[in-house]
Amino acid sequence: MQVMVTGGAGFIGSNLVDRLLAEGHSVDVVDDLSTGSLGNLADARASASHALTFHHLDVRSDELVEVMGRRRPEVVFHLAAQADVRVSVERPVFDADINILGTLRVLEGARAAGTARVAFAASGGTLYGECDPSELPVKESHPRRPLSPYGVSKMAAIDYLVAYRELHALEFCALALANVYGPRQDPHGEAGVVAIFSDKLLRGESVTIFGDGEQTRDFVYVDDVVDAFVRAATRGGGLVLNIGTGNEVSVNELARVMGERAGATSSPAHAPARAGEIQRSSLDPERAGIHLGWRAWTELEAGVDGVLAYTRRQAGS
Question: Is 26 helix (H, G, I), strand (E, B) or coil?
Fold first, then answer.
């Protein structure tokens, strides 16, 4: 199958590209390399023969529609985004330009290409806003009340997906992702506490916890997320599906587990809580189990070991 991955040189995107190539698909990658890296695609480019084509393009570019019309992907995995919540607060127009207008370019390109489906990376961590603890893990039926411009832009993109499905019969599946972690996540880039902790612990430095550390997140491993995207290429049409474990892990617990796995001896440092941070978050994955046949299978300890091993390899390279 001919497929396209926008943001394919990024953390999640490059892992998805590896999986798609391994399954025998021909893959076009679109990435402007503003946060992604060709290094993430090094193995894929070395071994993919002519099955991988890279396009150095911004999703807001007029050229994108022409490229998509020429390459004619059957499925588009749309992962390109401005993904930093703090940047969205400081620069909401910039955030909307990429996440809303960029998504519209992708949808127009999909129309020009006769694409059958778009699998979209939505944000489960911001889509629902601050939920009452009694509502956790949150279901897709929960009202969408994003508290950041980033969350608003992702919600608007879902609305456009619905409209294009009705107007142009362009099918979609939107995956509301929990806190994704794993190899290739940049500890110096956008959000990613596991990558940040891994980098600091292996340098022998103390990790920093903002606030009391009792805030919780639903940490889901990148390989599991990639599996959900692959399934969304053929299932879950017209749906928003939570992709998470359904479990809450506090930042204190994460720091404890990672410290143990890394053999660290230093204690975490504490800093003031960050304004606007959601206190508790977890996503109910039951609907994804029904419609995609998907579940998260990677336990936190195994996932952390994978990140630590990757960080060690990068430090030694």
Answer: strand
- Which two three-digit tokens encode residue 98? 């990429």
Q: Which of 128, 150, 164, 181 is catalytic?
A: 150
Is 150 in the active site?
yes
Question: DSSP characters for 114-135?
Answer: T--EEEEEEEHHHHT-S--GGG
- Residue 272 preceded by cis peptide, ω within 30: no
C-alpha neighbours within 13 Å on the C-beta side of residue 190: 19
What lies within 8 Å, CB to CB, of 75 at 6+ separation is 1, 3, 4, 115, 116, 117, 118, 119, 233
The three-class DSSP label of residue 76 is strand
Going 243 to 247 to 248 to 251, the CA torsion angle's sign is negative
Place of tokens 């990677």: 298
The DSSP line for 129-187 is: -S--GGGPSBPTTS-----SHHHHHHHHHHHHHHHHHHHH--EEEEEEE-EEE-TT--T
Could you tell me the maximum CA-CA distance found in the chain, to the nearest angstrom? 58
pLDDT tens-digit series, residues 19-41 = 999 999 999 999 999 999 999 99
Q: What is the pLDDT of residues 186-241, one digit of tens each?
A: 887 656 899 999 999 999 999 999 999 999 999 999 999 999 999 999 999 999 99
In angstroms, what CA-CA distances link 29 with 18, 22, 71, 200?
11, 15, 11, 31
Phi, psi of 246 (to 5 degrees): 85, 0
CA torsion sign for 292, 297, 179, 15 is negative
Residues 159-163: contacts with CB under 8 Å, at least 24 apart = 160/100, 160/103, 160/104, 160/107, 161/107, 161/118, 161/120, 162/238
Structure tokens at 259: 């410290």
pTM score: 0.96
